[in-house]
Amino acid sequence: MMTWSSNSLKGLWFIFPMLLVAAFVVITNPQGSIWLSTSNQYIETLNNGSSTTENQKDETQNVTKSSTAPKRYSKLEKLEAGLAKSRAAILRENKSWNNNQTEEDDQYIPHGPMYLNATAFHRSYLEMEKKFKVYVYNEGEPPVYHFGPCKHTYAIEGYFIQAMEVSKFRTEDPNKAHVYFLPLSVTMLTQFIYVVDSHEWGLMKNTAMDYVNVISQKYPYWNRSLGADHFMLACHDWDNYVNPFSDVLNWDTFAITVPVKDIVNLKKILLDIPQEKYLEMQKRGIQMRRHFEVNSPPNRYDVFHMILHSIWLRRLNFRVHDEDEF
Ligand SMILES: *[C@@H]1O[C@H](CO)[C@@H](O)[C@H](O)[C@H]1NC(C)=O
Ligand SMILES: *[C@@H]1O[C@H](CO)[C@@H](O)[C@H](O)[C@H]1NC(C)=O
Ligand SMILES: *[C@@H]1O[C@H](CO)[C@@H](O)[C@H](O)[C@H]1NC(C)=O
Ligand SMILES: *[C@@H]1O[C@H](CO)[C@@H](O)[C@H](O)[C@H]1NC(C)=O
Ligand SMILES: *[C@@H]1O[C@H](CO)[C@@H](O)[C@H](O)[C@H]1NC(C)=O
Ligand SMILES: *[C@@H]1O[C@H](CO)[C@@H](O)[C@H](O)[C@H]1NC(C)=O
């Protein structure tokens, strides 16, 4: 089931704000796998999706022909076909597109070795902006649901929940959604439900499970995918820490990752970095800063969009089937 780490939750009170961006997306599938906790490389991830691209291309064509074809395609099939098109567009080599940006000057274009594949990321990001739709369940009352504290250093959950509510990525029609958002704040759960130092994690887990029960009774979407296209935010499990946005960012080019056990040697590690390398990484770090910025309302390529993009990328990787397809 969902994993809640007492370390991660307690850690929230101390951690360095920049790392808080890692307050992260948990996909609540019944196997309990945490989506963004494996550092799949971007292209690996995409290529995996592409193994089905050929079939889906067929299907896309079939869908476009559907007005004349006898088979009627469900909303879900059309949605999946749209994703297949995005997948293909991201993977397609398109030199002219790459070198001929039509965007205006004030619009950021990802470039440089800080990205695992800047072109693919750019393309994927634009596809997301064009298509991605998120359904936010209305069930649940603030403050545990639909709300999260926004004024503290650990505010990323609350910020995302509130920004999502008014986002253009939100759809009111669950049939048009690619993913489903459980607007549940782990931080608020800890404040309202978890009795400090009681170690009653079971109570919090039950609250989240109750929520899942309610929406899986009321809507068909959870059962359809066993929750795999559902997500919620939770602070990251620090016992298994992965840098945020490792699905697109090449952290080694602009950051030094220091394992906890080496923190005592931090000064030496930092002094050992040659001046030239230091300046280069600093420059790259400044370019990467936009991806960690919290803006209200959100700006393109900022932390809100990067979290969304991680979810989008994950969603591109698998298909949801109608029940009668089985
Ligand atoms: C590709 O997807 C399959 C099944 O969806 C999974 O078992 C496999 O680990 C994935 N490979 C990579 C490289 O992500
Ligand atoms: C699309 O249609 C073609 C021919 O009409 C068929 O061979 C193919 O299996 C169909 N693809 C899918 C995914 O239904
Ligand atoms: C980046 O991704 C594109 C597909 O969008 C691919 O054609 C290209 O080979 C990739 N580049 C690198 C350096 O992997
Ligand atoms: C770039 O795009 C413009 C139209 O937007 C086109 O006229 C021009 O030929 C393109 N250049 C290249 C190198 O493809
Ligand atoms: C390449 O990109 C250009 C500009 O976005 C687009 O018009 C064209 O259709 C793309 N070509 C392919 C093969 O995707
Ligand atoms: C989803 O599955 C659960 C457990 O099997 C069941 O109780 C529930 O009624 C199902 N929901 C819908 C909408 O069919």
From TrEMBL:
Record's subcellular location: Golgi apparatus membrane
Span of the signal peptide: 1-23
> Its principal location?
Golgi
InterPro entries reported for this sequence:
Exostosin (IPR004263), Exostosin_GT47 (IPR040911)
Q: How does it sit in the membrane?
A: Single-pass type II membrane protein
In terms of superkingdom, the source organism counts as Eukaryota
**Cross-referenced Pfam families:** Exostosin_GT47
Q: Where is this region: Disordered?
A: 47-69
Sorted UniProt keywords = Glycosyltransferase, Golgi apparatus, Signal, Signal-anchor, Transferase, Transmembrane
Example of a GO cellular component annotation carried by this entry: Golgi membrane
The GO molecular function terms of this record are: glycosyltransferase activity
In this chain the Exostosin GT47 domain maps to 128-241
Family per similarity comment? Belongs to the glycosyltransferase 47 family.
Q: In its UniProt entry, what is this protein called?
A: Exostosin GT47 domain-containing protein
The protein's organism comes out as Anisodus acutangulus
